[in-house]
Every structure is written in C-alpha cells, then in structure tokens.
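Posted in: Protein Modeling Q&A

I'm a second-year student putting together a small comparison for a lab meeting, and my supervisor asked me to include a predicted structure for Aspartate-semialdehyde dehydrogenase. I've never done this before, so apologies if this is the wrong subforum. The sequence is pasted below exactly as I got it from our records. If anyone can share the structure token output, I'd also love a short note on what stands out.
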Amino acid sequence: MPEETYTVAILGATGAVGTELLELLQERRFPIKSLKLLASARSAGKHLSFRGQPVTVEALSQSALEDVDIVLASAGASVSREWAEVAIAAGAVVIDNSSAFRMDSDVPLIVPEVNPEVAANHRGLIANPNCTTILMSLALWPLHQVQPIRRVVVATYQSASGAGARAMAEVKEQAAAMLADQPPPTEIFPYPLAFNLFPHNSPLTEQGYCQEEMKMVNETRKIFNQPDLRVTATCIRVPVLRAHSEAVNLEFDTPFEPERARSILAQAPGVKLLEDWQANYFPMPFEASGQDDVLVGRIRQDLSHPCGLELWLSGDQIRKGAALNAVQIAELLVAKRWLATAVAA
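Accepted answer (user: helix_wrangler)
Welcome! Here is the predicted structure, written out as tokens:
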C-alpha cells in the first residue's frame, strides 16, 4: 500500500531552526503531501527550496493553518502562545520548539531517545525541550537506566547559534571589528561575545539562577519523570558560532566505573563516543556542528567523590538541540499512529 502522507507547516521557516527543519524533512524523507512555510509578514513572498522546487513563504494567518496535519513551530514563545491553539483547533498537532509550554503539566516534553511513550498522551501539543537539556539527556539517560543518578552538576558552554542566525552574524562582525581595532557591535548580545564569554544573559531568578539554568533543572526533572532529581547548572555564552558543549558531573549511590559508562554510551542511540586519551582528543563544537549525534567523551572518575563520574559533550544546538528533535517527534507520531489527539477522548 502507498505510504500515508501529511501536510506539514513550518512556523518560523526563515529562521536558523526553521531552515534546518526544512533541510531535515528533505534529508530524512519525511512523508509530506504538502508543505507550508509560514513566517512574519515581512518574510512573506520569499522563496525557499524543498526537494528541488521553490516554496513561497506565507504570512502566518488562521487560513494558512487550515488543513495542516503537523505544525513544527520555531518562531518564539510569544508567537506560539498566540497561534498554537489556533492550529490545534484547525486539526493540527503542534510540535513547539519554544519555552512557552514546556512546563505545562498536560503538555508532553519529549526527547524521543528518552521518553517516547509520553507522546502518546498529547492533546494536540508537544513541547521540544531546551537545547542544552536535550543534549545532556542523551548522555545521562542510558547511565540513569543502569544506575540511578542522584545529582547532576553541569556547566554549559553555549554558542552564538542558541540566539539565532543574527547572533551568529553579530559574532563575526564583532571579531572583524575588534581585529581592526574598532568597537564591536552589540545589538543582539548585551556584551561583545567575540574573544569573550559571559554568563547566559537570560533574566535572573530570585535564587540567583538565570532562566536558562532553571530550564535545565526543571526540564530534566520532567523528562526523567523524577521531580526530586538534584540538578544545578551554570550556563555560559562562549565565542563559538555553532554547537554547545557541556561539562557534566554525576553523583550515584555507588561507584560507576568509567569503563562501564563508556560501554553503555558507545551503544546509546543518538550518542557517539569520542575519546583518544593519547592525543588528548575529545568532543569539540567544531566537529559536532552539522552532526546528528551528541559527541561524548573524557569520561573519568571524579577524584573528589567515590561515587562521582565526569564527562564532556558537544552537540549541534540547531540540529539535535532543536530541529532534529522536533522532526524525530513528528516521525514518532507518524510511526506509532499517535497523530490523532486525545482532545476528543
């Protein structure tokens, strides 16, 4: 029998994640009957290529969301809050890449390699986790399944790509200006990022954590279905164009041998073990860029704690940290025939 096909809309199609979604739908041969590219009015009329054919970008509207099966939304939290329910009412399932709905108790927060079964209970809306949470989850979940993790201490080294295509361009402009002894532009970032780094500039909470750090805390707990999991994070923006890195310290109840962790992660889905101790060669954002897998390495015993384990990872924030995870959720819904929402149930 012929494969069933679907009408898919990309909301925020001209942004960094939107263009990656377009590429992945083509690369992974997603069963598309019709594709809609939606963006703001200022982007309407532009043309993007899909399967060798030009597709015109449409302005987001209620009529543009009619007869759509799946919406891959990556246009920001405010846009998602305004339009997600409109799309759901029109019959679509929305896979949202923003922070708008991640912590809603009735919205599944999905990393397909970790908690795919939760997607079966959606009510027309599924949230894509934060990029740093996705990358870390892939490395932690296989270990957690073998021996429960009691505490996570993570420091992230986040590239400009996390703030979008304009941020990546700004870092290049900053570097050129500074090399020419000119003042660097700071329109996207509050401070120069080229040849510099600073704590993530998302708003601070009363506890002194920024919102980015609290996303890692709260989202990891929700994905792992362990609300008491002890997680603390320090998120830093670094002068890297694309792909985030993370230094992760794990605490278990009993010792976890590094060699055992290597064996587990070498077989884990979405993970690529990358270690050459003789050459001092471990995951780097330069090599993680454009890759689907999260690169994990430098796995070692924590010298300060008998039950501690250290690891280092790099992963493409735009790809697995955003667009790929969303497409994998869509593939899961299609494969399991979970597109039908539970609204009517």
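A couple of things worth pointing out for your meeting: The first helix runs from residue 16 to 27. The longest strand covers residues 149-158.
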